[in-house]
Amino acid sequence: xxxxxxxxxxxxxxxxxxxxxxxxxxxxxxxxxxxxxxxxxxxxxxxxxxxxxxxxxxxxxxxxxxxxxxxxxxxxxxxxxxxxxxxxxxxxxxxxxxxxxxxxxxxxxxxxxxxxxxxxxxxxxxxxxxxxxxxxxxxxxxxxxxxxxxxxxxxxxxxxxxxxxxxxxxxxxxxxxxxxxxxxxxxxxxxxxxxxxxxxxxxxxxxxxxxxxxxxxxx
Length: 219
Description:
CATH superfamily: NAD(P)-binding Rossmann-like Domain
Strand content: 15-25%
Number of strands: 7
Structural class: alpha/beta
CATH class: Alpha Beta
Number of domains: 1
Order of helices and strands: EHEHEHEHEHEHE
Mean pLDDT: 92
Distance between the termini: 34 Å
Strand order of the largest sheet: 3-2-1-4-5-6-7
Largest sheet: 7 strands, parallel
Shape: globular
Low-confidence stretches: none
Radius of gyration: 16 Å
């Protein structure tokens, strides 16, 4: 039975909660990271009522020091990680002509730079057997939209980051991949139910480190 911690950065009541349940059933303790402390505490309490071994850590992914400190604390309390899931992103309607450099920078700080901070903090904590980095991708990385410009740019950059990180880390026993959700999460949906999507994350985690897997969930 696995005992290594799964760290989920950008945890919420949708996919984050489903990921916690799925990986907990596989035997892992769960560390959840989110900016909104009240919502995080509610989520942790609900999962604990289901006998999930879980702890929550308040952290803003745009504050690198705060995120690194929270990750270090979680590893100390729950044990070293074997999986990092990065699930933080900004969803807003915007067009390229409406984007200032600062507005785009603010989005990328969450969508991409927070992932870099999390990866750089977690990967050195993986044991000799390596670990898995899973980045939540979006269909906009494959088909960008002028109505969702900043998210299209962010998810495209995140996918490229996953590629180059995989190339670097595979020989070290670290599996890096994306799970691209090309649709809207919806309870009960045949493809996009959060728990079915979470099962896809668990399946990608089980692949060999050298194997590039960019799982795409689509209708």
